[in-house]
Design goal:
single chain; mainly beta; lipopolysaccharide transport protein A fold; six-stranded antiparallel barrel; 1 helix; about 10% helix; LPS export ABC transporter periplasmic protein LptC; glycolipid transfer activity; lipopolysaccharide transmembrane transporter activity
Length: about 180
């Protein structure tokens, strides 16, 4: 009886190991990342060698076939440009995706963008999706957006923004003015 139990245990162990083995991936299937960064900070430069943006996050994975990057809970820091209006941008989201050329960043899930305007007053944008184009310093969104500045709350559907000049266009807008506290 003991021999039968040991043979059954050996057979189950062999089956468990066999079922947990690495299976070859098909050519069209998801490929493993060619590299992974954990708890990192990267400064990305533009074509002139100036800082385009900095990204900090707990994890980044690069797709070896598409050359794109997926980022978990990124923080993007977009510096203020010389002659621009206001301070730098801090943009946070749950997920981020960077194109192979680094010319497009897609932010998804609880996107929050914070900066200051030319007068040094806070400017906050909240949405679920934001597409940022670092080379041109532009951002777009096709979903509901909320823009908060001192005394004003603007909500609407969609967004087109120039990150350098802080010029933000929100179509189909609803504006709420709040009295200043004395």
């Amino acid at each position: 009886m003991l021999i039968l139990i040991l043979m059954a245990a050996a057979a189950l162990s062999g089956w468990a190991l066999w079922s947990q083995r690495d299976k070859p991936r098909s050519a069209g299937g998801d490929a493993r990342p060619d590299y992974v960064l954990n708890d990192f900070e990267v400064v990305v430069l533009d074509k002139q060698g100036k800082e385009s943006f900095t990204v900090r996050a707990p994890k980044l994975e690069r797709d070896p076939n598409q050359k794109t990057m997926d980022i978990a809970t990124p923080l993007f820091l977009v510096p203020a440009r010389a002659g621009g209006n206001g301070g730098p941008w801090e943009v946070r989201s749950q997920r981020g995706w960077v194109s192979a050329e680094g010319d497009e960043v897609r932010l998804r899930g609880q996107v929050k963008a914070d900066s200051t305007n030319a007068d040094g007053k806070p400017m906050n944008i909240a949405t679920e999706e934001l597409n940022v184009f670092p080379d041109t310093n532009k951002a777009t969104s096709a979903v509901p957006v909320r823009l908060v500045q001192p005394g004003t709350i603007i909500t609407g559907s969609g967004l087109q923004a120039d990150l350098e000049t802080k010029n933000v266009i929100i179509p189909n807008v609803k504006v709420r003015y709040e009295a200043k506290a004395r």
